[in-house]
Amino acid sequence: MWSSQRAANVPGSVFSLMDAAKSRALGRGLNIIDLSIGSSDLHPPQAVLEALWEAVLDPATYRYPLFSDTAPLRDAAASYMQRRFGVRLNADTELLPLIGAQEGLAHLLLAVTDPGDTLLLPDPCYPPYWGAAAVAGLNVVTLPLLPENGFLPDLNGVNLEVRPRVLLLNYPNNPTSAVADLQFFQQAAVWCRAHGVLLIHDHPYADLTFGDYRAPSALQTGLSGVVELHSLSKTHHMGGFRVGFAAGDARAIAALARVKGATDFHPYLGIQRAAALALSLPHEVGRAGADVFQTRRDALVPALRNIGWEVQLPEASMYAWARVPGLTDSVQFAVQAAEQIGVLVSPGRAFGARGEGFVRFALVQPPEVLQNAADRLGRFSEGHSGR
Fold first, then answer.
1. What is the pLDDT of residue 384?
2. CA 114, 120, 126: angle at the middle one, nearest 5?
3. Interval 142-163: pLDDT, tens
4. Which residues belong to CATH 3.90.1150.10 in the chain?
5. Which of 281, 280, 283, 320 has its CA nearest to residue 298?
6. Numbered ranges of CATH 3.40.640.10 in the chain
7. d(Cα 18, Cα 75) in Å, to the nearest integer?
8. Can you tell me whether residue 167 is helix, strand or coil?
9. First to last CA, the chain
10. Residues 190, 219: contact at Cβ < 8 Å?
11. Who has greater pLDDT, 25 or 217?
């Protein structure tokens, strides 16, 4: 009776099934290896923690933060974007703090679309994208991300009769770990501007890159018609702090500010101080975490290949996306693996129809634990097709 149609349209989470399977495994006394959730197990830089501690002891941080109070964080974000990507931003009109990028996306869609507008959404994709689209009342048209195309969408194949309003991209990608170069973003921006489509780029893995690869920013194609969402959850290991920022087209940022002004205040001032410091740290500090995830990648990928699973070597992110031979029901497979051997992975179907046949690993355990997980899965999959 008290559920709106909007709430009813938000899809259920497959991850609730995984949580229940984990509880059953714990009840059986199994040793659990949880690789299902992409929450960094590393801790924030020490200087960031000290800044937060000092702020907690400062009574001036206890009040509601107003927009003017966010100036230090906006300035730090502008400096970061200039250093990292060569993108110049007006900190007053082209930047806005977020209570996490996930919150930012949900409010941004409410700010730049009307119910019934069309969102172009990659498949597979981060599951909360679907929920944000449902809350905004949007018509979703999916763009297949195929291995043979490097998990990049084919914009030339979009049926323009659907009159798209927004294109949502995410590279480095969750769940596939695929990466995109600047040329791809240039082509996407040209396409969007030609068709009056707002390009939103979710960029939480901007600095979790491996080897010589460095992820570009969609804003390097220009600010007009482009908004990019950044988070400190991954590179700076501040997931529980819930802080990030939106940057780009001043008109879209202004609309986002109006919607956010009606629904929330800005992040706690102490968290803002910690985030501003994190964004100002030398690049090498952020790279340290990427090196840890690269070492874990180098342990897991060969182990999965040794059991016959197909997996590309990720150039970025904190995930590995593996195709399991003969797999036709990834949810059943993941639930059974959790219940019977205590290894939790994310079923590909949780990310969209195109994710079926795959499972996602989060690189949130040390190398030897990841190898152990692969060994367990190899023995498990010999007798369980998951079909």
1. 60
2. 105
3. 999 999 999 999 999 888 888 9
4. 5-43+284-381
5. 320
6. 46-282
7. 41
8. strand
9. 38
10. no
11. 217
Judge contact between 233 and 245, C-beta under 8 A. no
Number of CB atoms found within 10 A of residue 274's CB: 30
* 5-43+284-381: CATH superfamily: Aspartate Aminotransferase, domain 1 (3.90.1150.10)
Helix (H) or strand (E) holding 360: strand 358-362
Contacts of 196 (CB under 8 A, 6+ apart): none
- Secondary structure (3-state) at 361: strand
**Residue 332, CA atoms < 13 Å, CB-side half-sphere:** 9
Fold of 46-282: Aspartate Aminotransferase; domain 2 (3.40.640)
- Alpha helices per DSSP H over the chain: 5-9, 15-27, 46-56, 71-85, 101-112, 128-135, 182-195, 250-263, 269-280, 283-306, 330-341, 367-383
- What's the per-residue H, E or C state across 222-249? CCCCEEEEEECCCCCCCHHHCCEEEEEC
Q: In what order do the strands lie in the sheet with 226-231?
A: 95-98, 244-248, 226-231, 198-202, 164-169, 118-123, 139-144
pLDDT one-digit tens code per residue, 68-119: 999 999 999 999 999 999 999 999 999 999 999 999 999 999 999 999 999 9
83 contacts: CB under 8 Å, gap ≥ 6: 283
Mean pLDDT of the chain: 93
Rounded CA gap, 168 and 201, in Å?
6
Alpha-carbon Rg for the chain, nearest whole angstrom, is 21
243 C-beta neighbours (distance < 10 Å), count: 28
Q: How far apart are CA 318 and CA 348, in angstroms?
A: 16
Q: What is the pTM of this model?
A: 0.94
